[in-house]
Amino acid sequence: MPGERLLLDAIASTALLRGPRAADEFLQKTELWRPEQLLPHQLKRLQHVLHHAVDAVPFYRERAAAYAGFLQAEPSLDSWHSVPWLSRADVLDQREALRAGRFPPEQQVEREANSSGSTGRHVSVLVSRASSRVIDAIAERDHRWHERDTALSAAAIRAVPRGTKLAGGGKRAWGRGGGRLSVLEVHTPVREQLDWLLEREPAYIATYASNARALLQAAKARGIRWSALRELGTFGEVVDDSLRQLAQAVWGVPLVDAYSCVELGYLALQCPKHPHYHVQSENVLLEVVKPDGGSALPGETGRVVVSTLHNYAMPLLRYDLGDYAVVGQPCDCGRGLPVLERVVGRVRNLMRLRTDEGDDVLWPRYASNVLGKYFAVRQFRLTQVAYEDFVLALVSDPLGAEKEANLRRMVLQQLERNVPHPLNLEIRYVSEIPRGAGGKFEDFVCDFREE
Fold first, then answer.
1. At what angle do helices 209-222 and 190-200 cross, to 10 degrees?
2. pLDDT digits over 48-63, tens only?
3. Can you spell out the DSSP letters for 236-258?
4. CATH number of 350-446: 3.30.300, 1.10.20, 3.40.50, 2.70.98?
5. Degrees (nearest 5) of the Cα angle 288, 290, 294?
6. Parallel, antiparallel or unpaired: strands 154-158 and 179-185
7. Which of 17, 141, 289, 451 has the highest local Cβ count within 10 Å?
């Protein structure tokens, strides 16, 4: 039906003219659709975005021939797969060329989003008013799904970029209920973070997963909890079951994660009934792509490739985010939005492996989930510095020869499970392991290149 083709335009227009709450009324309907029902609307919208990009964005205009197959026919997934990927290097190096020279009035630039990523190199993306309002509507959906009372207080502990509204101080509210939002820079020492939280006793806390773990461990040691707390929210890093269990054991609250990126906003929200995620298909088209280029099936892992449906100011199309995710089975919660079973990490968190067949990669296992349980280690990071060589940095008092030998054996046994040769492990004691410029923390990093 021709009218149905305007669905995503209607969501964006409603978010702009009537606000995120009104747009969420649309989302309450579309979240019940099956993926194949929503896909034609996504593809039609992407065709419109790409037409605009070829016309008004130098980067795409110079490569117009590569997009002809998708633009010149009825849009389909097959023709969409012919569109080349956009790399993070492209966004870094072609920043000016990716900006639209003109766009509709509702697509005027509202803000600039900056992400340092794992490497500290800043990706800077212009975000339009329409895209920003749709992201706000997705936030309303998140509150609705998890039945948050937005009249209550909330606290966010995160990186606070200079010059942003977050850095400006003053009174803030979150959600339509007008509850007070307090924000603290994540580089604040954890003991001070806990004291700050105790002064405010928020109903909701949101922070990076690694910082949430540090807070929970410190709170357990000090016996700190308060009855007003309803939920611990996380973002920006990989969450595992042990962290969810820790949140329940220490503070008696559920942990609710969100998968997002600075460049495109919300990508997937945690299901209200399960720990897996529902893709936010009204905001992005999210693909999980296997090494052979095919689409990953349930249970399979692939690279996350995302495309904006609403940002005409600086459209990122088939953007290789650098993440890996596992596709999930359809959910029994009643929502038809596609499922990600879990997000498993970034490219730079893959261990490099040399085999008889050539270079390979795998997800490292090194007992990271139990190191703090069996040893008096406050923080740690494993870095691969060569194919066979690893350095484990520990924030800890010296363990002593026997315990250090046990720790070394435990780590190497896990690392070598899928490696056909012995590995070398150096242990270093350090005073701290700093977060990246964007506030994130990685407990495994591959930090070498083959000569």
1. 80
2. 999 999 999 999 999 9
3. SS---HHHHHHHHHHH---EEEE
4. 3.30.300
5. 90
6. parallel
7. 141
